[in-house]
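Case study 2.
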Amino acid sequence: MAYIKEIQDIDAAELDEYARMTEAQLKNKRHQEQGLFIAEGEKVICHALDAGFAPRSLLMEREKLDRYTSLLRRCGEIPVYTAGRAVLAQLTGYALTRGILCAMGRKPLPTVEQVCGNARRIAVLDSIVDPANVGAILRSAAALDMDALLLSPTCCDPLHRRAVRVSMGTVFQIPWTWMDCTHLQWPALGLERLHRLGFHTAALALDDRSISIDDPSLKAKEKLAVLLGTEGDGLSAETIALCDDTVKIPMGHGVDSLNVAAASAVAFWELRCR
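Prediction:
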């Protein structure tokens, strides 16, 4: 059973992961398998536990201890740091809207080939830097039956605290990994690899040469990779040129585009395997 530790000093070193470590420090780029991430909320933490992630500690409001008894039991013998809401807000810099945080150990990621092995529909996120957008795309991908996600080297980390929260834990339910090339090698090497794996690549972009998202030829593809670009600028001209097709969602009322997370949901629904 987890053991309760009342917070006496908000500057204590054991609280650094909740209050003073940056996302990059938590991730531990040199040794990611030794890194951490922060899961927020009971539902998200349970999804992470279901996926085999190991809890290291919990941070929660004292008033919520009785509510989370079963979760504490499930987490085993780890410290549970607790205090009143005001103290926790002072520690973390924001109110714990769900009343509980969990520091969890990362796991080694699968290879691109492992993620794509049995996949027929995948999403490729290219330089999407807003964690809320990454989380929303993950949630849509899981809900709308995409098989996997791949991320370019400059994408936001899917295990960023906000991305995990916005995904509602679906980041633990759909396979994903990084394209293991440098930002200088992307997109050429990454797209070449997808083509070798048998994927027809479709760049989601507003372009005069684009075909419509509901084009029957796209739905008929045995293996399809949908590429989504960064907020604002979208996919680069080089990425679009290297893809097999450029695809657009027709816009009405003079609207120029959708937010990338909204566009992803439309694309995933329309291009899913029937």
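The first strand starts at residue 3 and ends at 6.
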